Amino acid sequence: MSLVVVDADVLGRERTGDETYIRNLLRELVAPAREAGLRLVAVTRHPDLVPDGVEPAVLRTKSQELRMAWTLPRLLGRLGADLVHTQYALPLRCPCPAVVTIHDLSFERDRSAMKPLERAVFRWAVPRAARRARRVLTVSMRSMNDLIEVYRLDPGTIAVTPNGVDPIFRSEGPRAEGRYALAVGAIQARK
Fold first, then answer.
1. Taking the C-alpha atoms of 44, 46, 51 and 53 in order, what is their torsion angle to the nearest 10 degrees?
2. pTM of this structure
3. Are 134 and 98 contacting, i.e. CB atoms less than 8 angstroms apart?
4. How many separate helices (H) and strands (E) can be counted in the chain?
């Protein structure tokens, strides 16, 4: 049975879109993984937030640098991962093929999107991950075009996978009745 590992470190960290994406990705991968005979593991600090049908693997390293350089690659090797999915960055020495989701390149396009140190880290880690990953997932044609233009990625390595709709907003969900205005995104000037 092949092992697919999802880096779910954002769970419980209130990282808005990144956390919502991983929570829903894990929930929606349970059935297809089962049907394909895949074992699905989520690496997290908060195993209580991992949905049923996904095995939690606890990794509590506080330093993101240490986590990506040392503890996550060691855990992937120990687990015998056949594939890992991450967001924005890959472990320095990734012992298995990787898929990376890059939601957007706002940090490349807008200097005010992040603090200078965080922006510098993203400007080093994200292009490196995009070039090393077997596949880059992104959520829009705009982001795909940015990846091609800014990082000179081969379009054949990029898959546009639009974000889904949370079940509470589906016609049979608990909020099916009534009138709504939908505003997507965090309350930030760039959004």
1. 60
2. 0.88
3. yes
4. 6, 7
